[in-house]
TrEMBL record:
InterPro entries: AB_hydrolase_fold (IPR029058), Tannase/feruloyl_esterase (IPR011118). Residues 1-20 are annotated as: Disordered. This is Carboxylic ester hydrolase. The keyword Hydrolase applies. Residues 1-11 have a biased composition (Polar residues). The lineage of its organism: Eukaryota, Fungi, Dikarya, Ascomycota, Pezizomycotina. It is an enzyme of class 3 (hydrolase). GO terms for molecular function: feruloyl esterase activity; metal ion binding. GO terms for biological process: xylan catabolic process. It catalyses: feruloyl-polysaccharide + H2O = ferulate + polysaccharide. The keyword GTP-binding does not apply. It comes from Fusarium oxysporum f. sp. cubense. PANTHER family: FERULOYL ESTERASE B-RELATED (PTHR33938:SF15). Belongs to the tannase family. Its EC number is 3.1.1.-.
Length: 315
């Protein structure tokens, strides 16, 4: 979804950070410092559990200014231009005349986007603009900007934008969608999935309760791009990411049960095995909520126990 925007967003990082040595550039060590500070501000203070996971990044209004260098300080801090870099990376991308291009990288997902914040332009985006959008191998990724984003939107090869909000035909034939996204996905912003769900809701004029009939979106905390991460993210989306062989803990079986038996999933249960193993003893189990519900810890029980959490609508 929004593939043009994704490539524009990924390519824009280089224009924001600049090359190593630029006043706007952050080293890997400095990004690690930012990641730790995100957790200081938005992990335990917001969800009550110091587990290195933002259960709901929507609650996090991260302030990188907490790391600004004081007078005379040169270590373990960020300069003004670097603070601005962090703000832009964690902010949405806009094009000409304020056109919205792509959502932010949510706080917490920054642990997985080192590939895009590096010492050279992101190659996928470079080749996308060179060979697909501009058809010019001499296009320079150092010059990427709003005109490039606009051109990508205009060209939209093979309708790759895929932002159709009217799913009426899909709904009419009785089809079902289980849409899920890892909240630590550093490649594709999980905010994009949330915005698409809301786009379908607005386009079709359906409330989330009405959408539940055929389309349910689940946000999986502590999960990277399709898998990985430190949370209870084994949900059975593929053979290598099994968490169980029942509909309640296997997203593919949940879809089958919904289609064939008419029983829609209220939650998707994920697990994390001890030491992050692919099988064995379960260390953490969590029932991931369907949007717009969010997981709330009761602040009494063991946070590793799914019964200590409850899906609640935002207040």
């Amino acid at each position: 979804m929004r593939f043009n925007g994704l490539q524009s967003r990924s390519g824009s990082f280089w224009g924001i950070t600049g090359p190593p040595g630029a006043p706007t550039h952050l080293s890997p060590e400095e990004w690690a410092m930012v990641q730790k500070n995100v957790l200081v501000q938005c992990d335990e203070p917001l969800d009550g559990v110091a587990d290195g996971i933002l259960e709901d990044p929507n609650l996090c209004q991260y302030r990188p200014e907490a790391l600004v260098c004081s007078k005379g300080q040169t270590k373990n801090c960020l300069t003004g231009p670097q603070i601005e870099t962090v703000r832009k990376v964690f902010g949405p991308l806009y094009g000409n005349n304020g056109t919205y291009i792509y959502p932010r990288i949510p706080p917490g997902a920054d642990q997985g986007f080192g590939f895009a914040i590096g010492e050279q332009p992101f190659p996928y985006s470079t080749e996308w603009f060179q060979y697909v959008i501009w058809n010019d191998t001499k296009w320079d990724p150092n010059t990427i900007g709003p005109n490039d984003y606009q051109k990508a939107s205009e060209v939209n090869p093979f309708n790759v934008e895929t932002w159709e909000g009217d799913l009426s035909k899909f709904r009419k034939r009785g089809s079902k969608i289980i849409h899920w996204h890892g909240l630590e996905d550093g490649l594709i912003s999980s905010d994009n999935s949330m915005e698409y769900y809301n786009h379908v809701s607005a386009t079709m004029g359906l409330s989330n309760t009405e959408l539940d009939e055929f389309y349910r979106y689940f946000r999986v905390s502590g999960c990277g791009h399709c898998s990985g991460g430190i949370g209870a993210n084994r949900i059975g989306n593929n053979r290598a990411n099994l968490g169980g062989k029942e509909a309640k803990n296997n997203v593919l079986l949940a879809l089958v049960k919904w289609v064939e038996e008419g029983q829609a999933p209220e939650t998707i249960t994920g697990v994390r095995y001890v030491n992050g193993a692919t099988t064995g003893k379960v260390e953490v189990e969590r029932r991931h909520c369907r949007y717009p519900y969010r997981n709330v810890w009761d602040r009494k029980g063991n946070y590793k126990n799914p019964d200590s959490w409850k899906c609640e609508l935002p207040k």
